[in-house]
Amino acid sequence: MKDFTAKGGWWVVAQALLLGGLAAAWLLWGSGWGWGAVGAGAVLAAAGAALAGGGLWALRRHLTPYPTPLHDAALVEHGPYRLVRHPIYGGIVLGAAGVSLADANWPGLALAAALGGLFWGKSGFEEGCLLAHFPGYAAYRDRVRRRLIPWVF
Which of 16, 53, 70, 113 lies 20 to 30 angstroms, CA to CA, from 25? Predict the structure, then answer.
């Protein structure tokens, strides 16, 4: 349990619970706000899928659910990591907000916002680990100013 906590396992548990809550909200609620909301939601969901998918592709073998890097990991600075330091987290938040908006799902939107807060905290914990693991991370963080969503935050 000590190793689980040290690797940031409780962040992963909280993330899984929020994602499960989102899935339940999508199944249980939603009434439709019209084509405008559907269109805006689809754009957000597609942007989120592109951002998260690009982050997954760039990380490939370095990917781990924990906020601590793998021992043999390299610092990834290409793909969406040129624009934002945690594109997978940001993409998941955009996607969750987009699906919830398209479905007119207030509980889903609230859970997407909570997921954004969780990923903000998890990424802060992760950045401490990355600073300790990669000598060049401080310079990368100074160069890439946005944490979750390019041009936003």
Answer: 53
